[in-house]
Amino acid sequence: MTRTLDLPRVQLDFARAIAASGAGSARDVVAGLRSDLGIPAAQRLHVYANAYFARIHEVLREDYAALHAAIGADAFHDLAKLYLIAHPSRSFTLRFAGARLPDFLRGPVAEPFSRRWPFSADLAALEWALVDVFDAPDAPPLERSALACVSPDDWSELRFALVPAHRLLALDWPVQGVGDAASAGEPIPSLEPCASKLLIHRRDELVWKRALSDTEFCALERIEAGREFGSVCAAVAERIGEDAAAGFTLACLEVWLAEGLIAGLQSAG
Questions:
Q1: CB of 169 within 8 A of CB of 126?
Q2: How many CB atoms lie within 10 A of CB 266?
Q3: CB–CB of 61/76 below 8 Å?
Q4: How many CB atoms lie within 10 A of CB 231?
Q5: Is pLDDT at 30 greater than 70 in this prediction?
């Protein structure tokens, strides 16, 4: 009797077996494979499983090059394997294969890595922001001349929109120098915990990062949340005083315009 195969089921079991997400699926697939050229069916399946891990490991190593350099190849290999078991790729593209690694490093399963390298989650968050911003949608930056026609009475009600290709990071470790050292082939610097705020953004084809003061970070967070410019100024005034707030906020606005960080504006009315 000829055995009839349920192709969609076979394909699903095959995918699960390769992704190591189902021992039962692996047994079912092996049962349906032929041994060929002296190679047992189970070994033939392992070829695909190993190739699956090797390709995603390669992608993770590229996206997290600084983390790879900081913790070493062996530890990164183990981290990638553990991460992939917990979060097998669900997308047709490998672009998002490493999207959950920063959160994974903050969770209990990755505790051996976060205990040995307590900065690892912050470093991963920075590296993923660089990847994510590079691929974020384009948006034409706001020209400074667009502000010339705004009435002074309307400024407090303005809402500025930031370009999609930006990320704000609040980190517990000063990891920005680790990536620079890794890219230059220099030794990874030793780190001590120190809160840092970073802006990551892309203009044209280049991704930039710079440190922010707590006050500028607060202002950008409010703009990101869609708050009126008057609310932004009030938040700044709470931090540095009303006398300095206006000059500080306008100076920041000039910098944001020059960086191409602002995409548009609208009046609350």
A1: yes
A2: 11
A3: yes
A4: 17
A5: no
Q: Which two tokens stand for residue 158?
A: 């303005």
CB 110 within 8 A of CB 104: yes
CA 97 distance to own-chain centroid = 11
Looking up tokens 């303005």 gives 158
Cβ contact 156:164 at 8 Å:
no
List pLDDT tens digits, range 113-128. Answer: 999 999 999 999 999 9
pTM over 0.90: no
> Which amino acid would we find at residue 109?
V
Beta strands at 166-171 and 158-162: parallel, antiparallel or unpaired: unpaired
146 CB-near residues (< 8 Å, 6+ apart): 265
CB neighbours of residue 136 within 10 Å = 17
At residue 27, the 3 state secondary structure works out as helix
Domain ranges of the chain: 1-117, 138-269
